[in-house]
Amino acid sequence: MTLTRTLSVQQRIAHTEADGQPVAFAESGDGPVLVCVPGWISDIELGWAIRPERAVAEALGRGRRVVRYDLPGCGRSRPAGAVPSFELALAALDAVIAASGADRVDLYGISFGTAVALAWAAAHPGRTRSLVLYGGWADGAALAPPELRERIPALVRAHWGLGSDVLADIFAADADATGRASFARYQRAAASAETAADILALSYRVDAATDAHAVDCPALVIHRGEDRAVPVAEGRRLAALIPGARFEALPGRSHIPYLGDVTALSALMLRFLGIAGPPAVPPALTPRQREVAALVADGLTNREIALALTITEKSAESHIEHILTRLGFRSRAQIAAWFASGSGS
């Protein structure tokens, strides 16, 4: 195994290997190690630039050394010569934990990563302090009918542009059009069509029931109530398989954890992990955006906002779209409630 380190802005980038394949990981924060097990495809550098994703990592970093990594073939873990497999995903997690130097870890599994986290915890009894599982499932065959389980990876493989747009509509359902387009671009930047299709196909073959039964640590299972990719019932089934697991449903339709109410998500995680301090909050608005938010709270239309601020109606509309994206909201009513609560002051 080789291990090299470089420094990036506020996160430490490192490289190791799993079964001869490259694995890049990033560390931030301080404390006992918490490893974020990626769901599907990711890019630790691009993800760090996504404000809500970074906000959650920074909130966790108040009490944990947070380790995020890319699966071989994704993000900074390229080039990789091996075809993605569950065994390689598990080896990548094992390599990252070994490189962290930790004997015991907390695991935060996301989507497909929940099955990988469960498998590692089951194979290493006593080494997992706790499990946080977001958007997971026990039986991949339950996610979609057989024809869809074949067609969606085939679409991604043949037409990655269209495929990434389709998946953005499903995975990022709470985002506006701009946010979904941004997520589609992120997917295409994070992995090739072949890698994305292979890992997506793996997701449909997940069978985590046996590993779930074997978990011997506290577990928190979180799911969004209207998740368009993985029905909330699958999250409940997964929680029921894990001895003593706690299940929490959050409002929202997005499968991606940082698209939606990251404050509520991080608050659940922080309480479960015993990390003190406030939960993650979306970044502050610019002065102009605060002005627009105040007028939205007053009930003004885009045209009225434009007249009040001496800007074009198109500019007013653009400001509102940026506010929705930055705060992770879907409606003007949410902006109004947010401002009325004093958050905009």
Automatic annotation (TrEMBL):
List the Pfam families: Abhydrolase_1, GerE
Show the coiled coil region(s). Answer: none
Please provide the record's keywords in A-Z order: Hydrolase
UniProt GO MF annotations:
DNA binding; hydrolase activity
Q: Which InterPro entries match?
A: AB_hydrolase, AB_hydrolase_1, AB_hydrolase_fold, Sig_transdc_resp-reg_C-effctor, Tscrpt_reg_LuxR_C, WH-like_DNA-bd_sf
Q: Which SUPFAM superfamilies match?
A: alpha/beta-Hydrolases (SSF53474), C-terminal effector domain of the bipartite response regulators (SSF46894)
Secretion signal span: none
Q: Where is the HTH luxR-type domain?
A: 278-343
What GO terms in the biological process aspect are recorded for it?
Answer: regulation of DNA-templated transcription
Per its UniProt record, what PANTHER family does this chain match? BIFUNCTIONAL LIPASE_ADENYLATE CYCLASE LIPJ, HYDROLASE, ALPHA/BETA FOLD FAMILY PROTEIN
The name on file for this protein is Alpha/beta fold hydrolase
- What organism is this sequence from? Leifsonia sp. NPDC080035
